[in-house]
Amino acid sequence: MATVFPGRYTAAAEGGFVIFLIGMRLNRPWKVHRWLPVFMAMGPMLARLSRDRSLGLLGYRVLPGLRTVTVLQYWRSFEDLERFARSKEEPHLAAWRRFNRSVGNGGDVGIWHETFQVTPGAYECIYVNMPRYGLAAATAHVPVARRGQSAARRIGVTADDRPAERP
Q1: I need a labelling partner for 17 at 20 to 30 A (CA). Which of 77, 83, 110, 117 fits?
Q2: Is the same domain home to 53 and 90?
Q3: What is the pLDDT of residues 53-111, one digit of tens each?
Q4: How many domains does the chain divide into?
Q5: Are residues 60 and 135 in the same domain?
Q6: Are 135 and 113 in the same domain?
Q7: φ, ψ for residue 161 (rounded to 5)?
Q8: Partners of 37 in the β-ladder
Q9: DSSP secondary structure, the chain, as one string
Q10: Domain range for residue 6?
Q11: Do 97 and 76 have their domain in common?
Q12: 107/130 same-domain check
């Protein structure tokens, strides 16, 4: 079981980073032969990225749904993400080609991604009585006082450091 950190914590990322959301949707769930290979392709990519931190993945979390699966990823930079996606030596490009050959525009399986480039200091988060989670699990997990008591202070829009309600 994960260790719960009592109190208020936040993440402290050094410099900027990238949030990458990628997912798939089962448009025709009964067509297992179409979506299962797509689903199975993500595991080897995440395993590869987890084994070699120099590739730039800081951390990830899989978020399952009824007809969708989303993977929330934190990357060191867009350049690292792009390099991994386009590399002939890494598993992504081959998986992308297989998807285009076997599924293409057929509509049985949907895939999507969204990429957000976060500039240094342009983020805020708080974790109260939680294990290390999200950005704090991917970067540094620090007491909230280190970055500011209020969300507005942590995201850099005010010098006021009073929380909305005293903890």
Answers
A1: 110
A2: yes
A3: 999 999 999 999 999 999 999 999 999 999 999 999 999 999 999 888 888 888 999 99
A4: 2
A5: no
A6: no
A7: -115, 25
A8: none
A9: -PPPEEEEEEE--SS-EEEEEEEEEESSTT-HHHHHHHHHHHHHHHHHHHH-GGGSEEEEEEEE-SSEEEEEEEES-HHHHHHHHH-TTSHHHHHHHHHHHHTTTSSSEEEEEEEEEE-TT-----EEEE-S-HHHHHS-EEEGGGT-SSHHHHTTS-S----SS--
A10: 1-13+123-167
A11: yes
A12: no
Token pair 């991994």: residue: 84
β-strands 127-130, 5-11 pairing = antiparallel
Residue showing tokens 């989670």: 133
Mark whether 113 and 46 lie in a shared domain.
yes
Q: Per-residue pLDDT tens for 115-157?
A: 999 999 899 999 999 999 999 999 999 998 888 788 888 888 8
59 and 95 assigned to the same domain: yes
The residue whose two tokens read 């399986």 is: 109
**CA-based torsion, 161, 12, 134, 25: positive or negative:** positive
Q: Are residues 154 and 89 in the same domain?
A: no
Q: Token pair for residue 143?
A: 């007491």
